[in-house]
Write a structure and sequence with these properties.
Elements (H helix, E strand, L loop, with lengths): L4 H13 L3 H7 L3 E2 L10 E11 L8 E11 L5 H15 L13 E13 L6 E11 L1
Parallel strand pairs: 1-2
Antiparallel strand pairs: 2-3, 3-5, 4-5
Helix pairs in contact: 2-3
Length: 136
């Protein structure tokens, strides 16, 4: 069975993130759908994915909103979380030609916003990165 818009996009984004030196210099290949129990920090985790129909009379399409969490427990505090965000932005924003989404055409990929908060346990920071993609 072929992947739908959201899962195909997630796979393409992960492949791109682990292929870009600016990202792997910080998180290595630790880009997860669900991180392992004893995860090594820092890492990225796919969070919310919402696929909305965006069809024309002749083409099936979708606008996919996706959030990715950057998780850090560095002694530098918030700094590492923001560095991860900037690496993700450089790897993905307007990089449609460099992200392969099997079965679909990635028309547009936009880095929208991010926020950084201290984790409730006080031991690290989590940045939530919001992206939007248009696929057909």
């Amino acid at each position: 069975m072929a992947d739908g818009f959201a899962l195909a996009l997630q796979k393409g984004l992960r492949a791109r993130l682990v292929a870009v030196a600016g990202v792997t210099a910080i998180v290595s290949t630790r880009v997860y759908d669900e991180p392992p129990q004893a995860v090594t920090f820092p890492y990225l985790r796919f969070d919310q994915i919402t696929a909305n129909a965006f069809d024309t009379d002749s083409t099936l399409g979708s606008v996919v909103d996706i959030t990715i969490e950057a998780n850090s427990r560095s002694a530098s505090g918030r700094v590492e979380a923001v560095q991860i965000v900037e690496a993700v932005r450089a790897a993905l924003h307007r990089q449609e030609a460099n992200v392969t989404v099997t079965g679909f055409t990635l028309v547009e990929l936009i880095f929208q916003t991010y926020s950084v908060t201290r984790d409730t346990d006080g031991r690290g920071y989590t940045a939530v990165i919001a992206l939007q993609a248009l696929l057909e």
